[in-house]
Fold this protein.
Amino acid sequence: MILGVPIGEAAKHSGVKVPTIRYYEQIGLLAAPARSDGNRRHYDASDLHRLTFIRHARELGFEIDAIRTLLLLQDDPNQPCATADGIAKARLADVEQRIRSLTALKAELQAMIEGCSHGQVAACRVIEVLADHGQCQNAGH
């Protein structure tokens, strides 16, 4: 007798779409589940926990390789957490860089809008700046 839930229920419980669950199995993030006599996948509580972990990590922007490493660490909890900390710190650095880029982009867009005379397109600052990147206030966006 196979215990667990079919893939559709696993998707519903974990928030991970069915094709994505299959993909995670294919790339080894999730072990192949037990199968029924009718060859249907059945996922147990540990599979659902793992899927939820992966989904949450993806929502936080972790790449698949980082998630793979984090899962290996989770599977052997007696290890020091320096590797997990390093992965999180690298992700934080990426987020901080993205925030800096978005802040510069915001400032540039605000400057374009504020410089607009609200007249005709011929005098539109938005069009001018988009046509000539050299007029941008911040080349780092």
Q: What stands out?
A: The chain has a mean pLDDT of 87. The longest strand covers residues 41-43.
